[in-house]
Amino acid sequence: MIAPLLAILLSPALWSPVLSSPAPVNPTPAATAPAPVDIRADRLELDQKAGRARFEGAVEVVQGALTLRCARLQARYAEGDIVGLEATGDVRLSGKGWTAAAARAVWDRSAGRLVLTGDPHIRRGGDVLRGARVLVWPDDERVVVEQARGRFTPPPLGRDR
């Protein structure tokens, strides 16, 4: 039950629009199957009646090349389906060649949206993008950065052909 919940947050598809990670053109079923999730925390509180799982203290979640670290991770579920995730306390996400950080990250499944708040920023190499809030709709391949600011290294100008 916990693995599908964390797979939502750590899915490469979730971050590919933000980080320009190309997705397979015609993925095979094996390519789209989620990788196993490994999780560590100082404490887990599971309340099945309330539909809530809460990980606390040095939370680390690893799925393939993606890692999430935070102080607390809470999941809400209904009828076996994950409906939301909230990571708080020095939230750090990392993957191949990129990192993201914020004080809070909230995944709302019904809206299909991830919201990063609390000095959210994304880094790739020497490039950095910051904002007051970063909103990501992975299914729509759409990102909104409120009060955006950043620094990017442009590619070298090519010669006319």
Helix-strand blueprint:
Elements (H helix, E strand, L loop, with lengths): L1 H9 L1 H8 L9 H4 L4 E4 L2 E5 L4 E12 L2 E13 L2 E15 L2 E11 L4 E5 L3 E4 L2 E4 L2 E5 L4 E5 L2 E3 L10
Walkthrough of the structure:
This protein has 161 residues and is mainly β. It has a single domain (2-23, 34-151), classed as lipopolysaccharide transport protein A fold, CATH 2.60.450. Helix content is 13%, strand content 53%. Strands 1, 2, 3, 4, 5, 6, 7, 8, 9, 10, 11 and 12 form a twelve-stranded antiparallel β-sheet that branches. The protein is elongated and about 65 Å long. The N and C termini lie far apart (55 Å).
Which CATH architecture? Sandwich
**What's the Cα radius of gyration?**
17 Å
| Global morphology | elongated
Total domains, how many?
A: 1
Order of helices and strands: HHHEEEEEEEEEEEE
Describe the sheet with the most strands: 12 strands, antiparallel
* Fraction of residues in helix: 10-25%
**CATH fold topology:** lipopolysaccharide transport protein A fold
User: How would you name the CATH homologous superfamily?
Assistant: Lipopolysaccharide (LPS) transport protein A like domain
User: Low-confidence parts lasting 5 or more residues at pLDDT below 50?
Assistant: 1-29
Q: Please provide the count of β strands.
A: 12
Number of helices: 3
